[in-house]
């Protein structure tokens, strides 16, 4: 398993490779980010941005989603996976925001997680990017990178990955570390074809070393 000292080397490498890593979901406010993040489950940011380019012009506030029919909303996001369930959750969370929070997204992770369709990862993304509250969302990229490096065991749950990274990473770096690990996993340590031969962390990576020996 990776040591805490080795993890600091990883953090420095992420910073050197992707100093400008950022949230790639296009949004103008917390509500748009909440909708975009909900749509991004099991879907690429590229596709979400393509859909929200029109969606966010048509719907700007929770009231717009409440007033539209479920059939029309489904049609608007039909190209996105799980669009039926996501449409249902978007309408329900919009209604709850109006009834309980004056139409505003609450700047609190635990409260946000009471909204339909909003899990821990989505809430962490929104509180950190929209409200500047340090948080570390674990998506498939973050989880894959952490486990390949040996930060976590393959059997660990996303919450285990989140807690371990937060323990070993300064709080003020949580949000940026999240973005940098996503970029590292999305553009370098890819799911299918990781760039192990040119990886600056190969000497620390148990998975990469296995892959190289197998060639």
What's the helix and strand layout?
Blueprint: H1 4-17, H2 30-39, H3 45-58, H4 62-67, H5 70-76, H6 83-101, H7 109-112, H8 120-131, H9 140-149, H10 158-168, H11 174-187, H12 206-214
Helix pairs in contact: 1-11, 2-8, 9-11
- Strand portion, in percent? under 5%
Report the end-to-end length measured between terminal Cα atoms.
23 Å
Integer average pLDDT: 97
Task: Provide the low-confidence segments as ranges.
Answer: none
Q: Helicity range of the residues?
A: 55-70%
Number of helices, counting only DSSP H or I runs of 4 residues or more:
12
CATH class of the largest domain: Mainly Alpha
CATH homology superfamily of the largest domain: Hypothetical protein, domain 2
Q: What characteristic shape results from the CA principal axes?
A: elongated
Radius of gyration: 19 Å
Task: Describe the structure in your own words.
- There is one protein chain.
- Helix 2 (30-39) packs antiparallel against helix 8.
- The protein has helices at residues 4-17, 30-39, 45-58, 62-67, 70-76, 83-101, 109-112, 120-131, 140-149, 158-168, 174-187, 206-214.
- It folds into 2 domains: 4-21 and 136-214, Helix-hairpin-Helix base-excision DNA repair enzymes (C-terminal) (Endonuclease Iii, domain 2, Orthogonal Bundle), CATH 1.10.1670; 30-131, Hypothetical protein, domain 2 (Endonuclease III, domain 1), CATH 1.10.340.30.
- It is mostly helical and 215 residues long.
- The two termini are 23 Å apart.
- The radius of gyration is 19 Å and the shape is elongated.
- The model has no long low-confidence stretch (mean pLDDT 97).
């Amino acid at each position: 398993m990776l040591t805490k000292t080795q993890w600091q080397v990883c953090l420095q490498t992420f910073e050197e490779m992707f100093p400008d890593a950022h949230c790639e979901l296009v949004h103008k406010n917390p509500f748009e980010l909440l909708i975009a993040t909900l749509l991004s489950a099991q879907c690429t940011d590229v596709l979400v941005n393509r859909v929200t380019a029109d969606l966010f012009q048509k719907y700007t506030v929770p009231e717009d989603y409440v007033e539209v029919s479920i059939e029309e909303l489904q049609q608007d996001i039909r190209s996105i996976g799980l669009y039926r369930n996501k449409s249902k959750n978007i309408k329900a969370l919009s209604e709850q925001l109006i009834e309980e929070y004056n139409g505003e997204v609450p700047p609190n992770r635990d409260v946000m997680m009471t909204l339909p369709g909003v899990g821990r990862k989505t809430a962490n993304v929104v509180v950190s990017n929209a409200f500047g509250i340090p948080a570390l969302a674990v998506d498939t990229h973050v989880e894959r990178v952490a486990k390949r490096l040996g930060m976590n065991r393959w059997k660990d749950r996303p919450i285990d990955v989140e807690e371990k990274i937060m323990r070993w990473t300064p709080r003020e770096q949580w949000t940026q570390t999240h973005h940098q690990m996503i970029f590292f996993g999305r553009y370098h340590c890819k799911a299918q074809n990781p760039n192990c031969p040119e990886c600056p962390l190969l000497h620390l990576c148990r998975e990469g070393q296995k892959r190289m020996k197998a060639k």
